[in-house]
């Protein structure tokens, strides 16, 4: 497996991604990038204390991020399976915002496969458009790649027409070589338009420019080899507009223009959205607005 | 020998299905707006010579123009130094060395070097902009590499100045006297610091000539020498044509000469000082092999190849201008390299997003172009990404040649431009033989996942520096220099200091 897909050099990756941070994005290109990032947000709430009311307000925020009508809606809301039907009720059937649901005993994945598949099916039945699954990291680290892949296939089949996002939980895989290998294990059984995703947001290290880069390069190599375009979603830890722009520069320079849209690239985030809006307002008015001018529907409270 | 990997066609599945091969699109969907660096380079209309601590008009009364290669506009007038000025500079240097600098305790000299380093840091943006205007290299390189490294060399050698008794364990060291130095145009400020810092840390005084094309930051650094209170005559800077450099190298007062530049000029200088007892350090040309094995981390290798040959538009003596690539991965490396080059931004060097800037002069651009013609004529295959070049100025897109063999001129001669010659190999022995099959021996790169192979290669490659899984890494603590026609003597580190002293 590792010989076949090639190795990754940690130092080289860190050096490459450091260069993205030195790009200087100004004026029109900045505004374009900010709006693009807004349209890519999977607005997320994944907490034990989530309620139907909280999800409803999240959905409203997803549809109307801010007063400015030129600001796009976000790509999706991302909630626990028990909240899917509430999200569907809030958004309605005819809506540009998709509903993503984490499933498969998120975030650990430590439930019997049967239970995990049942969870996926019920989330889809409740109206989820997208399923965010976690891989079996225990099996991966034990070298049982076949089991990892078989479980992904089972979940994919349980999804039906729903889009699948495969969470690698990069911080538990630890090395860039492992992240690249896990990306290939997933991509080889995914459908065009399915995603690989960095993390659950529930561990200490989530999306970084480094693991984002390793996964983008895996997607690129897989695409050039097979013609199958896989999408990408970094999640967790992206809180500022500046960070989001830097991630988008990585996409632009690694995968090119065809990945600069929300069917191919997403941000799993909550507080990111208001910082994007604040920067968009700053570009429009020339001054930073106080936080209380932006509705506070996605934060944890 | 390595375990061979199965050779993969770059796009097997797509080919088999008879569909068009998948391509990445690096277009203008999200184009970056211009982002020019706006710091003021604080230029004067005219710059004089720096002799005996004072800015002095040249004896000839003549001046020449310094041109911005990015737009062909005049930046400033520079003094045209001649024989009388060189004479005055050496007199000042000798006096300073004998009466002040040579006798000063090392820890006192250190204070001046620290002060110079800090003042340079204070004015880093100003110097970065001036350097970019004078040389054409991108602002991100002058800002992130040239200027910080120049300061680092002063800091490093300041640290040595009070510890000189430990440079040669068991021996005492003494300065040589006055040192004559001539530097090239590819890293004007950095080469200046690289030459001056060890010399004056050791107690020598200096007469130095910056390159004719790029004299600006040298005389600007003289302003910092004044501000730092450096005693008059310790460093003297003579701007002017190549012939003035010849006078400077051949001057009888110089106890040592140090030259960085082309092998051709190096040979002329060595002939001119034959029969004298001058010490010499020569840092000359190169035609480095960057060797990629099939087990290498390929994407990082591609990054290293790009950094190796397109850093500073390839105008680097240790540039990785020959890519030796293992046959099983050759197609994949070339495909990856082309995609990477499509994302490089060529253009206005002052724009913060520019990756490849302008070539230093019209002459150099013509030289590079002539090598492209030679390469095509000799049957190699040329590839350049499509990119819009500015209408005015000296620009050359990144260029790669495939199908190159050892006997192509583009594989043997130093081009000193953004031109990569790609050669394949099959075994480790073949790679070593091809890498060493050159009159030069300045640097080399090895890309492999196998530690033992790195150690073997670093022993067998006849090059002054061998980079493993990286390229073009520099540090003041690390000695730099060549084998064969790449020169002799080392610069940087303890070894570099030893070349500026005598053992007593």
Protein described:
- The complex is a heterodimer of chains A (301) and B (504).
- Chain A has 301 residues and is an alpha/beta fold.
- In chain A, 48% of the residues lie in helices and 11% in strands.
- Chain A has 13 helices and eight strands.
- In chain A, strands 7-6-5-4-3-2-1-8 form an eight-stranded parallel sheet.
- In chain A, helix 4 links the parallel strand 1 (41-44) and strand 2.
- The longest helix of chain A is centred in the C-terminal third of the chain and has 18 residues, at 209-226.
- The mean pLDDT of chain A is 95.
- With 504 residues, chain B is of the alpha/beta class.
- Chain B folds into two domains: 46-284 and 484-503, Aldehyde Dehydrogenase, Chain A, domain 1 (3-Layer(aba) Sandwich); 286-468, Aldehyde Dehydrogenase, Chain A, domain 2, CATH 3.40.309.
- In chain B, 39% of the residues lie in helices and 17% in strands.
- Chain B has 16 helices and 20 strands.
- Chain B has helices at 12-16, 83-101, 106-122, 124-135, 139-161, 188-201, 216-227, 242-250, 263-273, 298-310, 327-342, 362-377, 409-412, 428-436, 451-460, 493-498, and strands spanning 46-47, 49-51, 54-56, 63-68, 73-79, 173-175, 178-182, 205-209, 235-237, 256-260, 279-283, 289-292, 322-326, 381-383, 399-402, 419-425, 443-447, 465-468, 487-488, 501-503.
- In chain B, the strands form five sheets. In chain B, strands 14-15-16-13-12-17-18 form a seven-stranded mixed sheet, sandwiched between helices. In chain B, strands 9-8-7-10-11-19 form a six-stranded mixed sheet, sandwiched between helices. Chain B has a three-stranded mixed sheet with strand order 1-5-4, covered by helices on one side.
- In chain B, helix 4 packs across helix 5 (139-161).
- The longest helix of chain B has 23 residues, at 139-161.
- The termini of chain B are far apart.
- The model of chain B has no long low-confidence stretch (mean pLDDT 95).
- The interface between A and B is large, with 39 and 42 residues.
């Amino acid at each position: 497996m590792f010989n076949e897909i090639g190795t990754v050099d940690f130092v080289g990756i860190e050096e490459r991604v450091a260069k993205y941070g030195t790009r200087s994005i100004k004026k029109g290109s900045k505004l374009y990038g900010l709006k693009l990032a807004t349209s890519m947000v999977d607005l997320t709430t994944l907490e034990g204390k989530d309620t139907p009311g909280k999800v409803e307000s999240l959905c409203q925020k997803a549809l109307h991020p801010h007063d400015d009508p030129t600001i796009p809606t976000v790509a999706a809301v991302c909630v626990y399976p028990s909240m899917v039907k509430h999200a569907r009720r809030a958004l309605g059937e005819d809506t540009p915002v998709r509903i993503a649901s984490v499933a498969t005993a998120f975030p650990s994945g430590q439930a019997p496969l049967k239970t995990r598949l049942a969870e996926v099916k019920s989330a889809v039945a409740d109206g989820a458009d997208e399923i965010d699954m976690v891989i079996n990291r225990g099996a991966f680290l034990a070298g049982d790649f076949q089991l990892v892949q078989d479980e992904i296939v089972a979940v994919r089949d349980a999804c039906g027409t729903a889009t699948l996002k495969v969470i690698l939980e990069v911080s538990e895989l630890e090395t860039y070589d492992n992240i690249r290998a896990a990306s290939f294990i997933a991509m080889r059984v995914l459908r065009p338009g399915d995603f690989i995703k960095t993390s659950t947001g529930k561990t200490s290290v989530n999306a970084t420019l480094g693991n984002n880069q390793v996964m983008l390069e895996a997607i690129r190599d897989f695409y050039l080899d097979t013609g199958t375009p896989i999408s990408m979603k970094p999640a967790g830890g992206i809180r500022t507009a500046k960070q989001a722009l830097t991630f988008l520069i990585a996409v632009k320079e690694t995968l090119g223009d065809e990945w600069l849209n929300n069917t191919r690239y997403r941000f799993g985030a909550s507080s990111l959205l208001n910082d994007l809006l604040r920067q968009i307002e700053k570009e429009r008015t020339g001054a930073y607005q106080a936080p209380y001018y932006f509705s506070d529907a996605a934060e944890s409270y | 020998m390595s375990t061979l990997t199965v050779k993969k066609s770059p796009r097997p599945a797509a080919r088999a299905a008879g569909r068009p091969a998948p391509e990445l699109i690096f277009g203008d969907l999200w184009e970056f707006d211009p982002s020019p660096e706006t710091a003021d380079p604080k230029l004067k209309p005219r710059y004089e010579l720096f002799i005996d601590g004072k800015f002095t008009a040249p004896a000839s009364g003549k001046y020449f123009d310094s041109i911005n290669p990015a737009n062909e506009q005049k930046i400033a007038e520079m003094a045209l130094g001649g024989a009388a000025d060189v004479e005055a500079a050496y007199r000042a240097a000798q006096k300073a060395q004998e009466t002040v600098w040579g006798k000063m305790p090392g820890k006192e000299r250190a204070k001046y070097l620290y002060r110079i380093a800090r003042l340079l840091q204070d004015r880093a943006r100003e110097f970065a902009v001036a350097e970019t205007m004078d040389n054409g290299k991108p602002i991100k390189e002058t800002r992130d590499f040239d200027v910080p490294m120049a300061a680092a060399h002063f800091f490093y050698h300041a640290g040595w100045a009070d510890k000189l008794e430990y440079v040669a364990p068991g021996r005492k060291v003494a300065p040589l006297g006055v040192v004559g130095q001539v530097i090239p145009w590819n890293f004007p400020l950095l080469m200046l610091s690289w030459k001056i810092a060890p010399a004056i840390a050791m107690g020598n005084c200096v007469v130095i000539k910056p390159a004719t094309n790029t004299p600006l930051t040298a005389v600007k650094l003289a302003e910092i020498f004044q501000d730092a209170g450096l005693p008059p005559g310790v460093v003297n800077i003579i701007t002017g044509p190549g012939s003035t450099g010849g006078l400077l190298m051949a001057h009888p007062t110089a106890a040592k000469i140090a030259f960085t530049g082309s092998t051709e000029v190096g040979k002329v200088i060595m002939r001119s000082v034959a029969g004298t007892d001058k010490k010499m350090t020569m840092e000359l040309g190169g035609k480095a092999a960057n060797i990629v094995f099939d087990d290498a981390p390929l994407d990082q290798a591609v990054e290293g190849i790009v950094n190796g040959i397109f850093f500073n538009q390839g105008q680097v003596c240790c540039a990785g201008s020959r890519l030796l690539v293992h046959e099983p991965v050759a197609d994949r490396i070339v495909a990856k390299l082309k995609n990477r080059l499509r994302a490089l931004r060529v253009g206005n060097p002052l724009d913060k997003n520019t990756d490849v800037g302008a070539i230093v002069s019209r002459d150099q651009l013509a030289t590079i172009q002539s090598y492209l013609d030679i390469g095509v004529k000799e049957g190699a295959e040329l590839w350049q990404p499509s990119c819009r070049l500015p209408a005015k100025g000296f620009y050359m897109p990144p260029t790669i040649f495939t199908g190159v063999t050892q006997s192509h001129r583009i594989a043997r001669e130093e081009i000193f431009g953004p031109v990569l010659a790609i050669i394949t190999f099959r075994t480790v022995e073949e790679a070593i033989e091809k890498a060493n099959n050159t009159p030069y021996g300045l640097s080399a790169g090895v890309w492999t996942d196998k530690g033992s192979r790195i150690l073997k290669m670093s022993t067998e490659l006849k090059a002054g520096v061998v980079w493993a899984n990286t390229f073009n890494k520099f540090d003041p603590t690390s000695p730099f220099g060549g084998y064969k026609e790449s020169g002799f003597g080392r610069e940087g580190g303890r070894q570099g200091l030893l070349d500026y002293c005598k053992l007593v």
